[in-house]
Write a structure and sequence with these properties.
The chain is of the alpha+beta class. It has helices at about 65-75, 80-100, 105-120, 120-130, 135-155, and strands at about 10-20, 25-30, 35-45, 50, 60, 100-105. It has a three-stranded antiparallel sheet with strand order 1-2-3, with no helix packed on it. Strands 5-4-6 form a three-stranded mixed sheet. β4 and β5 (about 60) form a beta hairpin. Belongs to the NrdR family.
């Protein structure tokens, strides 16, 4: 591992710990040349399915692209980097668990939407506006109405079962 500051290959590990439920090892290192410290992450190389885009193209799954999309949707929102990383890890697990060689991009898009809905409603709407490619404001308003009706259902207490029905 080369030092990101001076490019020297000689360094020592100062601290190692598991993160993200044991799927990643975080290592704190110190360069023996310039004495600066940096962090590396080690993870098992995973085999992911090809992602089939709407136009039929196939791409390899790219966790960085997924994380970048989540960051963009959550920009200036109260969503932590850990929450974004947990979301990416959960989607990676979903893809691996499917055991398929190819997966439609819609599977990832719908899962991101589902998870953002629980994390932050503004981020959800931002992502939905790009993902769903709304043709006009009325389609966008329908999505907002659905979101508001979901929120209203969550806030209403359940009606007690009574004799009056």
């Amino acid at each position: 591992m080369r030092c990101p500051f001076c490019q020297d290959a000689e360094n020592k590990v100062i601290d190692s710990r598991e993160s993200h439920e044991g799927s990643v090892i975080r290592r704190r290192r110190e360069c023996l040349q310039c004495k600066r410290r940096f962090t590396t992450y080690e993870r098992v190389e995973e085999l992911y399915p090809l992602i089939v885009k709407k136009d039929g193209r196939r791409e390899t799954f790219d966790r960085d692209k997924l994380l970048a999309g989540l960051k963009k949707a959550c920009e200036k929102r109260p969503v932590s980097a850990d929450q974004l990383e947990e979301t990416v890890v959960a989607i990676e697990r979903l893809l691996q668990g499917m055991g398929e060689k190819e997966v439609p991009s819609s599977v990832i898009g719908e899962e991101v939407m589902r998870r953002l809905h629980g994390l932050d409603e503004v981020a959800y709407v931002r992502f939905a506006s790009v993902y769903r490619s709304f043709r006009d404001i009325s389609e966008f308003m329908e999505e907002l109405k659905d979101l508001l009706s979901d929120r209203t259902r969550e806030l209403k207490p359940p009606r007690p079962a009574g004799k009056d029905g």
